[in-house]
Amino acid sequence: xVRSGIKPISVLIVDDHExxxxxxxxxxxxxxGITVVGEAATVTDAVAESCRLQPDVVLMDVRLxxxxxxxxxxxxxxxxxxxxxxxxxxxxxNEAVHAAVVGGASGYLLKQINxxxxxxxxxxxxxxxxxxxxxxxxxxLTRMQQQKEKASEPQRATLSSQQQRxxxxxxxxxTNKEIGVSLE
Length: 184
Fold this sequence. Notes:
alpha/beta; two-stranded antiparallel ribbon; elongated; single chain; 8 strands
């Protein structure tokens, strides 16, 4: 059902498991204002179908045949700038979540979500919002905070023993010639 006058949100489902694609198709077909316009099982097909169909949202698994969903996400974002990518994964993988965010994804959800929650997330992403599953938000924020703290720490280069001797001689006020003689 679509409310009159409102264009439905078009969704491309990308997952390497047929049964998952069919299940998502069934769940989303029950939601007002959302239309599944296609499916893909591989990275290559995901990119090709995204360019061909120009969906509002690509609902994609992280792990795909022929590469990763991250590869597909970057390619889709590069070639179909109006299309948003929403990851739906079984894995609470902090590295994958971070890579998804950095790769331009609009969100990352876990497959434990129910149909109504998924539909809300798709609607939010289609409207330009970003979505992260609550179960992965805190670990991601912690990691980002640690990276920020690490970046703000002064970086100290480790000096070789020869460099340390030269530095000590410079600190004593020795000239280049005197340092050269001392090191012979």
